[in-house]
Amino acid sequence: MNDETKLMNKNFLLFVAGWELSMIGEALLRFALPLYIFMVTNNATLMGTILTWTSLPLIFFVPIGGVMADRFNKRLLMVMTNLVIGVAIVIYLIFLGQIDMVWFTALMLLILFTLISLLTPTAEATIPTLVPSEQLVKANTITFLLTIFSSVGAPMVAGFMLERDDLPQILWLSVGLFALASLVKSFVKIPYQKTKMETGIFKLVINDLKLAYHFITKEKPQLGQVVLFIFLVSFAISPIMSVALPILVTGYFGRGESIAGLAQGIVVFGGTFGAVFIGILGKKATVKIMRLLLFVLTGLLLLAGIIFRTSSSQEIVFILTIGTFFISLSFVTMFVIIGWTYLQENTPEALVGKVIAINSSLAALGVALGNGLYGFLFDFFRASPAYAFFVLTGISLVVSLVSKVKIENEM
Length: 411
Prior knowledge:
Layout (H helix, E strand, L loop, with lengths): L9 H32 L2 H11 L1 H5 L1 H10 L2 H22 L5 H30 L5 H27 L4 H19 L15 H19 L1 H16 L2 H14 L4 H25 L8 H21 L3 H32 L3 H32 L4 H24 L3
Helix pairs in contact: 1-2, 1-6, 1-7, 1-8, 2-6, 4-6, 4-9, 4-15, 5-6, 5-8, 6-15, 7-12, 7-14, 9-10, 9-15, 10-14, 10-15, 10-16, 11-12, 11-14, 11-15, 12-14, 13-14, 13-16, 15-16
């Protein structure tokens, strides 16, 4: 068997190694910099506001990254973006403690996530060029697992170091990781066909996104339906992790930040089981089961509400809630892997970056809107979170029914 026909070929292994190095560096910064702001100001509202800002690049700059992924050399884009992130961190280190670090840290986060939003579509669009099409599900499962591992382990390391006032060490570690990721990715051989730019970059972005939008709405509308499905799930389900969990653990249950961090790590690890189960399903893991997964997630939201409504023991409610969220993230991971794989398999190489960018941008918008909805509901029903879950169950059920009709008719 030729190396190019295998999943674990040299180029994919190098890409995966570079992917994990940059993911660990990103996870360290995602955890450490916002928490540093809170440590300096003791202002949770300010920290939350700054975190909201960091979602804006994911909405507005990911499409540009998608166009760049299809128009330029993917390897060069990934190598240079990782290097620029490293340089930005070094500049931040130079001024650390010398100026108003709150707003300088906010600026650093904005720069970081802008660069990451440009990098992500390139990385995602690279995967289909490195593995056989029949191995895409397994390839995406591997990258998702690595992302989960970095999201669990890196915050633990960063938290341990922050307790000892070692923010500079975290930053230097991130610099090293991004530099090493850049070096490893420079050895990846990625197919590239140079395209001529006949217009300016902004007009090019608009024109290319129009082509991608036309493709997923007119030429292959089933792709557009999957993108819409992922957006709706991002809105109705994904904020369980980013909003519901920390609010419930620290607010309703009155646990400390260390318990909240541990709970988050446990729930995130649930994604591992979803990724593993995708491998067990094999060829059955297709878009045809996406609506079934959403119905299961709807049932889990209902179960969470019932747990809060019927149990009188906070300890039991706490344990069952973590368990329910753990299972929920497993199904969310399965849902996302199946959707992304379908988009990659059915999009021409010249458009895959742009289609992925549209999907990522809309998913980020869905999460941002969902965060606001979850925040409002869990604040309004602060004394009885069960009612918040019942409202979310209704919303998720409507999404399930609507999405079923739109996707099933095209598949």
